[in-house]
Design a protein that fits this description.
Strand content: 15-25%
Shape: globular
Largest sheet: 4 strands, antiparallel
Structural class: alpha+beta
Number of helices: 7
Number of domains: 1
Distance between the termini: 39 Å
Radius of gyration: 19 Å
Strand order of the largest sheet: 1-4-3-2
Helix content: 40-55%
Length: 188
Amino acid sequence: MLNKLLLSAIVAAFSLPAVAAEATPEAAKAIALPFLKQLAAENQKAVAEGGPESAIQVCKEIAPRMAGEASRKHGLKLSRVSLKVRNPMLGTPDAWEQKVLQGFEARAAKGEKPETIEFSEVVQEPAGKYFRFMKAIALQPGCVSCHGASEQISDATKARLAEDYPYDRATGYAPGQIRGAVSIKQAM
C-alpha cells in the first residue's frame, strides 16, 4: 500500500507542468537574454572548431533544443522567428509576431538600435489570454558567413544551407540589421 502511494506521488510530481515565469517584460527579458547569450556562445564555439558550416548545426539542432528546454523550464513557449525564415517549420512568425517584427523594422529605420528593440503586451486570442514578448536579434558581424549577401557566403556553406534548408530565405543581411527575434508566449 505504501509503495503504491509513494509511486502515485512520484508520478504526480513528474506530471506537473513547469512553474510559469512571471508574466512581465523584465521576467521575459531575464529568459530571452541568457538564451541569446548561450546561443551566441554555441555558435562561436562551432565556428572556432569547424567553420561556418558547423554553426549551421547549432541553429538547426542545438537552438531548437535550447528553446524547448527553456520553454519547459519556465512554463511558456520560447522560439526564434523572422520575416525571412531559414526553417519554415520552426521560424515562421504568427500574425502577432509578423506585426511586431514589421514594427521592429520601422523602429530600426528611424534610428533605434536593433539590440535595444523589444515589445510586449497582453493579448486575447481564441485559446485565451497571453502575455507576449519579443526581443530583436541584431545580426552580428560573424553571422554574415551564413546570413550575409551571396558573395559573403562560401560555396561550401551555400551547399550545406541548400541541403539542410531547401526553402531558405534568411540571407542578404548586413551586420546590425534585425535578423529576427526571440518570441515568448505565456498563457495567463
